[in-house]
Amino acid sequence: MSELVVDNIHTFYGLSHVLHGVSVAVNQGKFACLLGRNGMGKTTTLRSIMGLTPVKSGTITYRGKRIEKFKPYETFELGIGYVPQGRRMFPYLTVHENLRMGLRDKRQKKSPLFERIFELFPVLAERKKQKAGTLSGGEQQMLAIARSLAGEVGMLLLDEPTEGVQPNIVDQILELLMQINKDKGLTILLVEQNMELALSVAEDYFVIERGVIVESGMVKEIDRAAVVDRYLTV
Question: 26, 139, 187, 232: which could form a disulfide with 155 (CB 3.0–4.6 Å)?
Fold first, then answer.
């Protein structure tokens, strides 16, 4: 059963036509990835789903509900979390305060989910009173993911979560995402330029080229060499 269905969406930045009829369906509980070179429309696809870059035409459906006209906060309240490229922390707030910013009800001081988050991210538990701006790049990325999870979302959109992160921390982040996907049934759509990394964790894949989905399928059936040669070689 598809949890998220993006059907033939067209998105513009001003007069620039970026997405030309993108269609993506992610099944409930699946870990999917969206691949493509820089500038092909990966980030715009995620922003369109979240309502940050409104679509001109086409439909987006989440759990049977049309959301293409939703504001970003409405999309989040429905249960879709978003970890943008660049992490976008509140650097002068503590780790704990950043997590509170991820709550759907901002009147809460904490959530029962925080204990589970600190189990998943023990380094954040150690630094919960530390200002986010003093964390390493990898720790900030973990905090960005944790902040989205604090909203008790059913689906997580991640935009290049391994960018600028040390290789050993990248492995920790990917293992964590796989664990959350498996144990909690969290549906994940990952945007990642590094194909090998993405395919090491995802079950389903989509390839975007110049604002069009040109190939999709199950990772176990992908012809990696052909995909790289056609769409991912710079």
Answer: 187
